[in-house]
Amino acid sequence: xxxxTQNLSRNVRDYGMMAALxxxxxxxxxxxxxxxxxxxxxxxxxxQNAYVFILTIGMVMVIVAGHIDLSxxxxxxxxxxxxxxxxxNQGLPWPLVVVLAIGVGALVGVWQGFWIAYVGIPAFIVTxxxxxxxxxxxxxxxxxxxxxxPQGFKNIAGGYIPAWFGFAGPFDLxxxxxxxxxxxxxxxxxxxxxxxxxxxGLQSEPLVAWIVKTVVIAALIGFVxxxxxxxxxxxxxxxxxxxxxxxxxILVLAYTFVMGRTVFGRHIYAxxxxxxxxxxxxxxxxxxxxxxxxxxxxxxxxxxxxTTSRAAASIAAAGVNFExxxxxxxxxxxxxxxxxxxxxxxxxxxxxxxxxxxxxxxIMGVRAEWQQTVKGLVLxxxxxxxxxxxxxxxxx
Length: 396
Hints:
Blueprint: H1 3-10, H2 12-31, H3 39-48, H4 50-64, H5 72-89, H6 94-119, H7 123-142, E1 146-147, H8 151-158, E2 160-162, E3 167-168, E4 171-172, H9 173-199, H10 207-229, E5 238-242, H11 243-261, H12 263-273, H13 275-280, H14 285-311, E6 313-314, H15 322-332, H16 344-363, H17 368-395
Antiparallel strand pairs: 1-6, 2-5, 3-4
Helix pairs in contact: 2-16, 4-11, 4-14, 4-15, 4-16, 5-6, 5-7, 5-14, 6-14, 8-14, 9-10, 11-12, 12-14, 15-16, 15-17, 16-17
């Protein structure tokens, strides 16, 4: 078996999910008469599913460490209620409110992290209690819908980046620049990773496989850039690049670095892979578990701000089933049920699959109950594929 074949065997889940995303997009492109890949649809895919991307990043870290978090949807609603109360009822400026709202999410993470890490109550129980507690508090704070937010706050999830560099024909130059920077960054990061592995004498991905994967991802980025650069929005001073896409992009880059290049990230993998060995190795498991849930609270706070901005109102019923979407996206993206395995990039692919399913089925007019059924079947298939692949690898 040559190196390329071995690499395909080791990374069959990653390549399989990318192929699944491609197939799902093509299927919906046919079933929706080309609507799924229209410029406005791609922009809507980002804005409508931003909460999934944000929450999934944190959920990957939680699951890799061997935990679960059932409370994030309720925390999103609670943070949204606090946001509306501070901004409308108390008259605070929206930038300050955003900071305070994320701080509230962090405090929620401190609360739950304390019970999990230092008291020793299983995360399932603590976050199940949190789901009830913070849903109740959301109703207390925003039992009556709060609206009347300033435009600057609503632009967080519904606005577009200003067209600072103008247009070249039908293309917005700033959007094109963002796409080019993203592709160059992808190539440079891949080359640096390969160079580091070679320098340390470790095995790297075969060159052919790396080139093919990089070309495919670069082509995807280029296609999305092309569509967004030609997206016509109502405000001529704006571009087709949603502000929330930049927020999500920054978070993906930051947490990919955290999980792959920091001691904290390595400790998360160590705890999820073998808790006993991690303790013997000197990992402060209590502190790491505590920080995992503080981080999840921060991301839930950001998701709460984004969700409230998009709805332009604080609604007590916001965030219902958000935790299920995030968990499903993490598992679909290759995060192992048993912990110890998972990547932010894979989880984002999982979130994209969930987002395309949501949008494609909605465009087709499929009722909500059938949408839930389809997503459940996709989740079951993804986890079954992961388990069967591990069994095959173990048998080999």
